[in-house]
């Protein structure tokens, strides 16, 4: 396999992984990079990854940031999060 062909194919896999991740509510660029560096595996990872937009969410008691239900630490204030009494509806359902 030549260099150019490899770059084109890797770029294609990166784009596919990014689009799949975007549809699922995850970041496009992070998966684009993963899909490009690891063609095939990155795309597979994006397909098998969690549907972020379908995940239940909850609000941080400390700062009010809405985080995924499965997050154990708030990404903004660093507070340890207990399992919440009530979960917020997934982003996709709230739309
Ligand atoms: Zn917080």
Structure, described:
By secondary structure, this protein is mainly α. The chain folds into two domains: 3-49, no CATH class; 56-95, no CATH class. It contains four helices and two strands. Strands 1-2 form a two-stranded antiparallel ribbon. Helix 1 (3-23) packs antiparallel against helix 2, helix 1 runs parallel beside helix 3 and helix 2 runs antiparallel to helix 3 (41-48). It binds zinc ion. Residues 60, 62-63, 65, 74, 76-77, 79 line the site of zinc ion (ZN). Zinc ion is lined by residues 60, 62-63, 65, 74, 76-77, 79.
Low-confidence stretches: none
What is the makeup of the main sheet? 2 strands, antiparallel
Q: DSSP helix count?
A: 4
String of helices and strands: HHHEEH
| Structure class | mainly alpha
Net shape: elongated
Strand order of the largest sheet: 1-2
Q: Structurally, how many domains make up the residues?
A: 2
Helicity range: 40-55%
Question: What integer is the average pLDDT?
Answer: 86
Q: Whole-Å distance between the termini?
A: 46 Å
Number of β-strand runs: 2
Classify the oligomer: single chain
Binned strand content = 5-15%
User: What's the alpha carbon Rg, rounded to whole Å?
Assistant: 17 Å
Question: Topology of this protein?
Answer:
Blueprint: H1 3-23, H2 28-37, H3 41-48, E1 57-59, E2 66-68, H4 91-94
Antiparallel strand pairs: 1-2
Helix pairs in contact: 1-2, 1-3, 2-3
The structure holds zinc ion.
